[in-house]
Amino acid sequence: MKKYAEITGWGKCLPPAVLTNDDLATFLDTSDEWISSRTGILERRVSHLGTSELATIAARNALAAADLDPKELDLIIVGTCTPDEIIPNVASAVQRNIGATHAASLDANAACSSFLYAMHFATQAIKTGAHKKVLIIGAERLTRILDWTQRESAVLFGDGAGAMVLEASDNEVGLLSSHVTCDADARDVLSLDFGLSFDRFGFDGIMEFSFVGQEIFKRAVKGMSASVEKVFAETGLTTEDIDALIPHQANKRLIDFLAKLCKVPNEKTVINIQKYGNTSSATLPIAYAEAVEQGKIKPGDKIMSAVFGGGLTCGAGLIKWGDRVTPKQPNDRQLPAGDKSALELILPLHEHTKKAWEQRGK
């Protein structure tokens, strides 16, 4: 019998420290009106703990919602572009933290597209019978790597994590169709020099962030549109069949474009970018977790998701939700509070980068 990858658990983790647009205006040449009118973002979260801690909380919440013993997991995939270290991977830290002693563990870096990529490959692994119970996570601590002197990019991003449990099922649910791709010719329009790409002996603390906004928007629109159309063609469904749109939360204007493309009204489009900014790979699972909590996802709903990220990676997927929209166990674990506000966490990073640029003579 054909197998499907049913979503049986979901969860999220948002750091408690909130950085508002007005906070940013205290050290950047910007304002709440400038940021919100261009992006739709009002605030974002700043984590005082590492990516693996965010991922672990989200994972525990998803496992609670599924009421699944971590020892039953046979695969963990963490989508992230902000790992705590190069080696070992974040997934192995999550595996250790939750006690998933029988799971294979790996990280996937497709930037903001990472979670959909992870869902795409995890679903295929379940369909082939290679795996039966998979934990997929999107987790980012972007605030630690941004150049906080660059207004155009610094205002866009935030920290967070989200997770899902996928289990083999005979029911025709889960990710029914997906298409992932990469526009590699334009990979340099969204990039961050990090890892082994810089001279570690001459590293002065600046990780140069290339962000060509107009070009990114143009290619994102083209890539996501093509992916959505291929998913529709494969499933035989149309925009009339879509109950909800849950897109990557990158920019309110881009979300509005996707909603128009899919002919989904505002009330069926899930938007939370105003609260969290762009959390990269975490935007999709956080949005799904909140949509379930808020009753925006109902049993049997057909949901379209589309993403794009550095690379330029891109993709879309059609998900049919299962019968259950309530967690089997409480899934509201949170990070412990830190002893600093979001602004107190960010200001030292801004000052350090500002001095480094001055030393470079810029």
TrEMBL record:
<dbReference type="Pfam" id="PF08541">
    <property type="entry name" value="ACP_syn_III_C"/>
</dbReference>
<protein>
    <recommendedName>
        <fullName>Beta-ketoacyl-[acyl-carrier-protein] synthase III</fullName>
        <ecNumber>2.3.1.180</ecNumber>
    </recommendedName>
</protein>
<dbReference type="InterPro" id="IPR013747">
    <property type="entry name" value="ACP_syn_III_C"/>
</dbReference>
<comment type="pathway">
    <text>Lipid metabolism; fatty acid biosynthesis.</text>
</comment>
<comment type="function">
    <text>Catalyzes the condensation reaction of fatty acid synthesis by the addition to an acyl acceptor of two carbons from malonyl-ACP. Catalyzes the first condensation reaction which initiates fatty acid synthesis and may therefore play a role in governing the total rate of fatty acid production. Possesses both acetoacetyl-ACP synthase and acetyl transacylase activities. Its substrate specificity determines the biosynthesis of branched-chain and/or straight-chain of fatty acids.</text>
</comment>
<feature type="domain" description="Beta-ketoacyl-[acyl-carrier-protein] synthase III N-terminal">
    <location>
        <begin position="106"/>
        <end position="183"/>
    </location>
</feature>
<dbReference type="GO" id="GO:0006633">
    <property type="term" value="P:fatty acid biosynthetic process"/>
</dbReference>
<keyword id="KW-0808">Transferase</keyword>
<keyword id="KW-0276">Fatty acid metabolism</keyword>
<keyword id="KW-0443">Lipid metabolism</keyword>
<dbReference type="InterPro" id="IPR004655">
    <property type="entry name" value="FabH"/>
</dbReference>
<dbReference type="GO" id="GO:0004315">
    <property type="term" value="F:3-oxoacyl-[acyl-carrier-protein] synthase activity"/>
</dbReference>
<keyword id="KW-0012">Acyltransferase</keyword>
<comment type="similarity">
    <text>Belongs to the thiolase-like superfamily. FabH family.</text>
</comment>
<feature type="active site">
    <location>
        <position position="112"/>
    </location>
</feature>
<feature type="region of interest" description="ACP-binding">
    <location>
        <begin position="249"/>
        <end position="253"/>
    </location>
</feature>
<feature type="active site">
    <location>
        <position position="248"/>
    </location>
</feature>
<keyword id="KW-0511">Multifunctional enzyme</keyword>
<dbReference type="InterPro" id="IPR013751">
    <property type="entry name" value="ACP_syn_III_N"/>
</dbReference>
<feature type="domain" description="Beta-ketoacyl-[acyl-carrier-protein] synthase III C-terminal">
    <location>
        <begin position="233"/>
        <end position="321"/>
    </location>
</feature>
<dbReference type="GO" id="GO:0033818">
    <property type="term" value="F:beta-ketoacyl-acyl-carrier-protein synthase III activity"/>
</dbReference>
<keyword id="KW-0275">Fatty acid biosynthesis</keyword>
<dbReference type="Pfam" id="PF08545">
    <property type="entry name" value="ACP_syn_III"/>
</dbReference>
<keyword id="KW-0963">Cytoplasm</keyword>
<feature type="active site">
    <location>
        <position position="278"/>
    </location>
</feature>
<comment type="subunit">
    <text>Homodimer.</text>
</comment>
<keyword id="KW-0444">Lipid biosynthesis</keyword>
<dbReference type="GO" id="GO:0005737">
    <property type="term" value="C:cytoplasm"/>
</dbReference>
<dbReference type="InterPro" id="IPR016039">
    <property type="entry name" value="Thiolase-like"/>
</dbReference>
